[in-house]
Amino acid sequence: MIMTEYFDLKGQVALVTGCSAGLGVQMAKALASQGANIVALARRKERVEAVAQEIHDEFGVETLPVQCDITDTERVNAAVDEVLDHFGRIDILVNNAGTGAVAPAEDITDDQFENEMNIDLFGTFRVARAVAKKAMIPAKYGRVINIASMYGLVGNKVAGSSPYHAAKGGVVNLTRALAAEWGKYKITVNAICPGYFYTDLTRETLDSDFFQANAKTMIPEERYGESGELDTAVIFLASPKSTYVTGVPLPVDGGYTCM
Question: Could you tell me which InterPro entries the record lists for this protein (predicted)?
Answer without folding.
Answer: NAD(P)-bd_dom_sf (IPR036291), SDR_fam (IPR002347)
